[in-house]
Every structure is written in C-alpha cells, then in structure tokens.
Specification:
This protein is of the alpha+beta class. The protein is built from 2 helices and 7 strands.
Length: about 150
C-alpha cells in the first residue's frame, strides 16, 4: 500500500443484531480500482474478520487519453441497439418516479476506473458504462469497460 491508496465505504450491512459488514472500495489517487474490494466484519466496534481482494494499481499518469463522450460513442457502437432506455420518454419518467429524483436517467455516465488483475503487472485506465438496451418485453443491461487504447 502507498500514500496514493485509499478506501471508501460503499456498503454497510447489519448481518444480525451484533455483527456489521462494511464493504470498502479500493481507490488509487481517488479512482476506483475495479474488482478490488475489502470486507470488514465488526462486532462491538472491533474487527473480527477481514477478507477481500486487493489489486496493484500504480499508474504514473491518471489523466485519461480518451474523452468520456468518445468512450461512450465506442460503447454504443459495440452494443448497436435499435433503441435505448433513455430514448423512451416513458422509461425516463419511470426511473425519475421510482428513484424519487427528477434528475435520474438511464443515459450512461462514464466512471473512470483502474483495471488491474491479481498477479499481473498490466494496469490501465478505463471507462465503465452501464448501457440499458430496450426491447419490447425486456431490458438488457451491458457493463462495458473501454480501455484508453481502443
């Protein structure tokens, strides 16, 4: 671990009346490291067990080479859907209603992340998008990772 590594609480769950699970997202220079999380099991304000996976994430430059809108264009070309959830006025109204948030939308927002694998030296920046494709009777959700070289 270095001074650039940090953790952010992403979920707290009371498993029973005594034990609390705290899930931590690993960050490097404030950028989430994909699939790098740690869990703390706490009883009476004491950590009783810990488990998780931490990936190495030392990048010399964390400035993306690819703009978010260019990455989104590439993601949409990959999905190549006839229609998307954010294009439907009804679906956009529904998400705003369900979340009780007038700004909620299905339109994809890119999240800059660090891709790293255990025991692999290759580390790179990527954008993660959730793209919701609309079908007649169901919806498909794609999680797309676009690295900086595509």
């Amino acid at each position: 671990m270095s001074k650039d590594d940090d953790f952010k609480i992403i979920k707290t769950i009371s498993e029973n009346s005594e034990v609390t699970l705290v899930r931590l997202q690993h960050l490097w220079k404030n950028i989430p490291v994909e699939n790098s999380q740690y869990n703390l099991h706490i009883l009476d304000n004491t950590i009783i067990t810990m488990n998780g996976v931490l990936h190495k994430a030392n990048l010399s430059n964390v400035d993306p080479l690819l703009a978010e809108n260019d990455a989104l264009d590439a993601a949409l070309k990959y999905v190549n859907a006839d229609s998307y959830m954010w294009e439907s006025k009804e679906m956009e109204l529904l998400i705003k209603e369900n979340r009780r948030d007038s700004l909620a939308t299905y339109f994809p927002k890119g999240l800059l992340v660090i891709l790293s694998e255990k025991n692999v030296d290759s580390v790179q920046l990527a954008y993660r998008f959730e793209v919701f494709q609309e079908y007649h009777l169901n919806t498909r959700k794609y999680m797309l990772m676009l690295d900086q070289e595509r």
